[in-house]
Amino acid sequence: MDLQQIMGVLSRNAFASASLALMALSFALVIYGASEVILAATWVAAGEALLIAIGYVVIAMAVFDVAKYSSTKRRPAARKAKARADG
After folding, report:
1. 3-state SS class at 74
2. Is residue 12 part of a domain?
3. How many domains, in total, are found in the chain?
4. Does some domain include residue 17?
């Protein structure tokens, strides 16, 4: 393997690791928001916790989408670079 291939593998592994970490954190954020709503002592506290939880879910979905995008869009770029190098 030459240096370019090694860097390609390292780059893909770094993006895959970051994507998995972002996905795990987004799921944790959703669970945290849901637990805050469940553990609220009064209706007023539950309403406030629900609004905050909705914000957490929106943020978590955005983070998950970024993680999904970075894990799926990285491969075609690597294929294009390899095709340019080969052809």
Report:
1. helix
2. yes
3. 1
4. yes
Cα–Cα distance for residue pair 77/84, rounded to 1 Å: 11
CA distance 79 to 87: 12
Q: Is residue 85 part of a domain?
A: no
Residues with Cβ within 8 Å of 40's Cβ and at least 6 positions away in sequence, in order, are 46, 48, 49
**82 has pLDDT over 90:** no
Residue carrying structure tokens 């770094």: 14
Nearest to 19 by CA among 80, 78, 74, 77: 74
d(CA 37, CA 56): 12
* Residue range(s) defining the domain that contains residue 71: 8-80
pTM check: above 0.70:
no
Asked whether residue 61 is domain-assigned, the answer is: yes
Q: How far apart are CA 52 and CA 28, in angstroms?
A: 14
pLDDT at position 78, please? 60
